[in-house]
Structures are given as C-alpha cells and as structure tokens.
Design goal:
By secondary structure, this protein is of the alpha/beta class. The protein is built from eight helices and seven strands; from the N terminus they run E-H-E-H-E-H-E-H-E-H-E-H-H-H-E. The structure holds D-gluconic acid (GCO).
C-alpha cells in the first residue's frame, strides 16, 4: 500500500500560513511530507512554521508574492537550492471579494483574478520547468464549487475559479508527456476564515446545511485525503481531473 506514501516528498503550498493552505501543510506534513510554506507575511509564516515544527514536521518557509513573476522565479530557485527539488506544488493561494457585479471596481476585480488565476500560472510555470527537467512531479490547483456554478456577488472569484479548472486541464495535457500530473481539488463549503461571515449568517448557514446532502460544512481536515492521493504515486495515471470534496453538493439537483 505504499503507493499512497508521500514520505519525504517536498511539498510547496502557496498561501499556506493560514486557512486551507495551512490545513494542507499540517495534513501532508503529518503524513510524512517535507513542507515548504509560502505567504507574503514573514511574521505569519514564522508562526505557522513553528506550529508545524512542534508536530515534528520538517518545514521551510519562503515569503514571496505569487502574483509577481520576478519574485516567483527567484523564490523557486532559492527553494530548490536550499530545500532541494519540489516534488509537489499545491496552488492554494486565493482570495474572494463580495459585491453586486455592477458595483465591482476594476482594481478589486483584477486583484481577485490575479491571485486566483495568474498565480497558479506563474508558480506552475516556474516549478513546471524544474519538474519537466526531472521528468517527474505533481501539481494540485485548489478550485471551488464556483468552478461549476455561480451565486450572486462573487463574480471575479467565480470567473477565476472557472478559469482555474480549465487551466488545470491545459497544464495537464502539456505536462503529461513529462510525467508531471496536474489535477485539482474543489472544496465545497468549509468553515474557514474566508467564510467566517457567511457561517455566522444564520440564513446562509442554513442554506449551506440544507443544500449540502451531508447536511453540514466541511472540516478542513477532510480535504487532506484527496491531497495525499493526488500527491502520491497512486495517482500517476490521473491528470486533468478535479476531485470535489463537497459533501455531495454537485451530485444533487
Ligand atoms: C462564497 C464562498 C465560496 C466558498 C467555496 C465554495 O462566497 O460562496 O466563499 O466561495 O469559499 O469557494 O466552493
């Protein structure tokens, strides 16, 4: 059963000082992976790295802006020089903004799309060049239910996550010949910082629990199994796919 092993694999997770990104770091680290944290705040990264180190997880941290091509290129060179070859890239960094479509200003719109869609391109390109050279690697883009459907007030997020689903397929079909698999994980509604206000809203909370066949919000720990699977050799012939961890949301009318 060691096909599911990720022991000693080096895993770079963007946006991993908190939220789902940190949950991936903690979960894959506990499963034996060596974690490379990323975020823009050195302080938050130091705090997150300390939490992982307390659990005996081998951890590195690299602060860089994943939307800035120069910073991304320099960071990937630095990470591979200091930590060694990146085996798995998880493009998790993302943000959301909520407003009626007609009230969005261009700056906010592009800010969401840059982080959610441009950063997986930039980081995927920089890490992909290394993996192509090694003829081996795994990438996981973190999409969303909003890659498949829309709800009012989150148009830039929806557009970016729809694009990320298709970017996953585009990367997959080009990288496959280099033995680099690219897949996505689409979380349903999870109780994270990003969704704090939504979960506190009784009507929204009721809608999520009613619309989700499992009748509840997801726990970030419930995303770890899919991430381990897509980071392991058990998924070597799977690429361009999205695993939805959504409590049955997309299975239901
Ligand atoms: C929202 C939520 C969603 C969830 C998640 C669902 O405003 O509807 O923030 O975007 O976070 O993406 O898959």
């Amino acid at each position: 059963m060691n096909m599911f092993s990720i022991e000693n694999k080096k895993v770079l997770i963007t946006g991993s000082s908190q939220g789902l990104g940190f949950a991936f770091a903690e979960g894959l680290g506990t499963a034996g992976a060596e974690i490379i944290l990323n975020g823009r705040s050195e302080d938050k990264l130091t705090e997150a790295a300390a939490k992982l180190a307390e659990k005996g997880i081998k951890t590195h941290a690299c602060a860089f802006d994943v939307t800035n091509e120069e910073q991304v290129s320099a960071a990937i060179e630095k990470i591979e020089a200091e930590a060694g070859p990146i085996d798995v890239l998880i493009n998790n960094a993302g943000m959301i903004a909520r407003s009626p479509f007609e009230d969005f200003d261009a700056k906010t719109w592009w800010g969401v799309v840059e982080l959610n869609l441009k950063s997986p391109f930039l980081v995927g390109k920089a890490v992909g060049k290394k993996m192509i050279g090694r003829k081996k690697g795994k990438m996981i883009n973190i999409t969303s239910l909003l890659s498949e459907g829309a709800r009012p007030t989150i148009s830039p997020y929806t557009a970016s996550k729809g694009g990320l689903k298709m970017l996953t397929k585009a990367m997959a079909v080009e990288f496959a010949k280099h033995n680099v698999q690219v897949n996505a994980i689409g979380p349903g509604y999870f109780a994270t910082e990003l969704n704090k206000t939504l979960k506190a809203n009784k009507d929204f909370d009721n809608w999520v629990c009613t619309r989700t066949p499992s009748g509840r919000w997801g726990d970030p720990k419930e995303l770890i199994g899919a991430a381990i699977f897509l980071s392991s050799s058990a998924s070597d012939f799977i690429t361009g796919q999205t695993i939805y961890v959504d409590g049955g949301w997309l299975a239901a009318l």
